[in-house]
Amino acid sequence: xxxxxxxxxxxxxxxxxxxxxxxxxxxxxxxxxxxxxxxxxxxxxxxxxxxxxxxxxxxxxxxxxxxxxxxxxxxxxxxxxxxxxxxxxxxxxxxxxxxxxxxxxxxxxxxxxxxxxxxxxxxxxxxxxxxxxxxxxxxxxxxxxxxxxxxxxxxxxxxxxxxxxxxxxxxxxxxxxxxxxxxxxxxxxxxxxxxxxxxxxxxxxxxxxxxxxxxxxxxxxxxxxxxxxxxxxxxxxxxxxxxxxxxxxxxxxxxxxxxxxxxxxxxxxxxxxxxxxxxxxxxxxxxxxxxxxxxxxxxxxxxxxxxxxxxxxxxxxxxxxxxxxxxxxxxxxxxxxxxxxxxxxxxxxxxxxxxxxxxxxxxxxxxxxxxxxxxxxxxxxxxxxxxxxxxxxxxxxxxxxxxxxxxxxxxxxxxxxxxxxxxxxxxxxxxxxx
Length: 434
Ligand SMILES: Cc1ncc(COP(=O)(O)O)c(C=O)c1O
Known about the structure:
Blueprint: H1 13-25, E1 41-45, E2 48-51, E3 56-59, H2 62-65, H3 74-84, H4 98-115, E4 122-127, H5 130-145, E5 149-153, H6 162-165, H7 171-174, E6 185-188, H8 197-209, E7 213-218, H9 234-245, E8 248-252, E9 276-279, E10 290-295, H10 296-299, H11 319-333, H12 337-356, E11 362-368, E12 371-376, H13 381-391, E13 394-395, E14 397-399, E15 405-408, H14 416-433
The structure holds pyridoxal-5'-phosphate.
């Protein structure tokens, strides 16, 4: 078992020097310079990250949920290296690569074809970042329904591009740009177990009756909103509401996709088939690539290209990213992930409850698959715990609209011994910060 090993105080001297250089050359809003200040990554493997000062950390974040297969997984690394020796850039929407065709074929197979026994085919538009996949879904909804409004949810996070931002809940992300934003979304409360779903259903029905709503955009489990797990009947309720009104159901699985919640996709917990699904992060596990996959009958709303795609990007279907995605999908197709993720998740949940249950200041410990959140009673407290853990060699992230949730979303190969060690450190951080 490899455990965190700190050669210097964290952040170490090289990281501190780099942070000073960054402060001069990067726009001030981008990297949080502390305290304690960032550590600068040098290499990573499995659940471990090394910084420029030689410190080794145990990663409980999967680096924003990307490294679900572990950091630098050999199959993905090898396919990137192989591809890099022949072609690193193509002309995505003009003269594409064979890899793009393979990837699109595979995305259809793993989503709509798998969900419907081959009855429904999926068609995709590729992007680079997650928010682009969301924006493609929003454009598709308008093209398909002719309606320009959507329903989104409190605490939702869909990214910060101008389209996605209009569906992201947090005021601190939206407010500075509100003069440039339109009112696209009507936000409804994201339900928690025990909440009054019939009440939500009535509110939703009233909104949908206006015939202005083209889509409901939803994370099947909220990630950055604070690891919020809705009641199991929530997605089927949304599906029925969409079927009644002709609106599209868009599942944003950029965080939850590829077994994070114990199923290949989180919509599968309730057997819900969305009209569009947005994917990113663990889709490649390494390089920037996202996809909006939709039912063929929905994607048909896009006009056939007459020589100029009306939605595209320079790097669309980049061959390195496609190679990484094909290698990752090869891994994600293997059976056994559900068992592994659920077993490690059950172990992690037990450890967290043993370590933290009943403490003052902790509201709730919740999780599904390997996606856990510890909700604290105080805004901003999760960042203090997270900073403390960083100094002890454990990487975590604060989440939640008020920074009230410590998120734990480790890479799937993390061992039980590593989890036991990490949660021991989490317990100690709660003792010391309290
Ligand atoms: C559910 C969800 N949607 C969209 C995004 C935005 O993805 P990106 O940061 O790659 O644009 C994120 C990022 O955390 C996310 O968690």
